[in-house]
Every structure is written in C-alpha cells, then in structure tokens.
Amino acid sequence: MGRYVIISTLTDDGAKTLKKNPGRVKEVNAELKDMDINVVDQYAILGNFDFLTIAEAKDDTAITKAVVEIISRGSIKTATYKAIPINEFVKSFK
Fewer Cβ atoms within 10 Å of its own Cβ: the N or the C terminal residue of the chain? Predict the structure, then answer.
C-alpha cells in the first residue's frame, strides 16, 4: 500500500454543494473507499487550499484513477503527492 497526500481546493460549484450539504465530504470519502482508496486522515485547512487528505492506495494507478473520477465532477481541484515513509527515505541513502 502506498500513502498519498492530496491537497484540494473547492471550485465555485463545489463550495455551493458543500454549503448545502456539509456531509458531502464524508460521502466522497465513502465513494473513495468503494474505489479501494482508504482515507487515513483529513483536515479542512486555511490558506491557499481547502482540504488536506492522507490516503492509502494499492498503487499509483489506483490513486490516479480515483482522483480523476473525483475531479471530473467539477467540484474540486487537487494536487496529489506520493508520501515516502521517513525510514524508507533514510534507508535509500545507505
């Protein structure tokens, strides 16, 4: 399982949807679960982005497919990064 950091920003349509249905965030997380993506942790954040999500997926292809599905709806824009556990990172230099 790989771990990924997804930072996201709501579009205008996404903000309207969230205002009407704040629980939509959790509904999307359940949809991600159906796509074999596990949301490990999630935060609403202040600044240039609206959410920070830590997710696990079996591989890069699985997370990419899930993110494309979510962004294709037009409610959110994302940037996704692969997270490398620090012990693996340090070990790679030995």
Answer: C
